[in-house]
Amino acid sequence: MTEGIRTAESTTIAARVRRRLRSFEPLYLALLGLLAVPSYVFDSLAVLEVFELFFLFFLWPFVSPLLDLVLRRGADEERAEPTDWLHMGNWRAYAAWFLTMPLTFVNPLVLAQDLSQWLGTGVAFVRHRGAFPDPENYDQQTAYRLPFDGTWTVVNGSYDHDYSHSWLPATQRYAYDFVITDADGHTAPTESGSAVDSYYCYDEPILAPADGVVVDVFDTDFESPRGGGLSHPLKRDIRGCYVVIQHASDEYSCLAHLVPGSLTVSPGDRVERGQEVGRCGHSGNSSEPHLHFQLQDHPRFELAAGLPIAFDAVDAEWPGAKAAIDEPRSGGAGDATTDPLEDATDVDRTYLTAGQRVAHVAGADEPTDGSASPERETIESTAESDAGQSAGSDGRLAAVRRAAFGTCVGGAVAVLGPIVVSRTAVALLLGAGVALAAGWHGWVAVRRTAAERRPGGLGLAIGLGLVAAAVRATGTGASLEVGTQALGGLALLAGFAAYAALGEYERHRLRELFPASWARS
């Protein structure tokens, strides 16, 4: 069922401002900063540098939670928002988050991935011919269950723009953040402190939402031992440890922020609906332990467009008692027949939104089309064999793909490095990155099993080395003299173009290997 969310009427100024800010999307203005890019390459266009000011709007996702916290205090008695019953993040947690935020901007791996998400949104926009999927027009191919058992809480995310995880970049548009809370909306006992194992959801099993084939995993990212707004400063991926599963030709689930070392699957494995794939953790960009879940149209996170997802067999309740609903609206779900402010069990497909507590209905796990037929079993066997071939082929392409990403990382360093250091220092930083990436690859090759190694080998070191060599070769007095920032911008764009081309090749290859009749609908 799908309902349009409407907040409770409130007369407080703080509540009205919160409603206005919820629908405000300043990241569209941030894109105007791209008009300044030509000034980095052509001195005659230096006047365009004024558009750099619009890049400040990219800070909005960091500012808006703090602003909401301030305004929430002014409207607390009203409980104007469906998430106001939750208690996630106090002043201490937000202070820790803001104090460690600069580490995100100096971590070149995270910075390059952030930039690639924005460039990838443009690729997805073209792929969908200027109209991203939404609940009104997207025809979901597969039946999905919740990726966990027990009762969890949606703390972030919705099919609705105003409560979405993050409307831009498009890859996370319909993503969800899930935690476990007590009846009072706390994610851990109030006296327990911020150790990760004190959070109710930490180390809980995470399940495959539908049958599928694993196409990508990462199990060796770093995890901070504490929540409370802190994440590991040396994280190597926004998602931390994650699993990506293909369920249909263009439907992939991504389950992120898992516990390092907890993954039970590898690329090429076929998984069953409800099978454990890992444990809920705190790796990657995470302020406290939670599960980040999203459905996407592409195997590569940075290039994907998020897809709206309706779950089967959901028991949902709305503890935010003052939230209200509009008339039901279409979107591939059944008609709303119950008031979502009360407990409701509905085996039809259900769109979720922030503020709900949800649980999978036991016994309603299988779709109504019955058990697998011999023909389906043959299809599954063929798909599993093809998936293994795909995984092997992907291993051969992974080094090139990682080299392309390494070029993006080197380009990001060359663009931002000259702000604080010299060209020579940038070259030295890139050289150090090459040595570090190569050394880490050697350590992993010796100390980790083949299943624990991230595909790509020395690709990252190769990409960084190419940019380092270009910075040295185009300096002052060289036959071809190019500014460091201009060179960095070109390297970033060239690396991303190669990454996107390889990603599109991979997407088309997986579409051909995955039988359309395997999707469970």
TrEMBL record:
CDD domains (UniProt xref): M23_peptidase (cd12797)
Region annotation Disordered: where it falls in the sequence: 323-343, 357-393
Membrane spanning residue stretches: 26-47, 53-71, 403-421, 427-446, 458-480, 486-502
Keywords from the UniProt entry: Membrane, Transmembrane, Transmembrane helix
Residue stretches of biased makeup (Polar residues): 380-392
One GO MF term attached to the UniProt entry: metalloendopeptidase activity
Positions of the M23ase beta-sheet core domain: 199-297
Superkingdom as given in the UniProt entry: Archaea
InterPro entries: Cell_wall_metabolism_enzyme, Dup_hybrid_motif, M23ase_b-sheet_dom
Pfam families: Peptidase_M23
Protein name in UniProt: M23 family metallopeptidase
Lineage: Archaea, Methanobacteriati, Methanobacteriota, Stenosarchaea group, Halobacteria
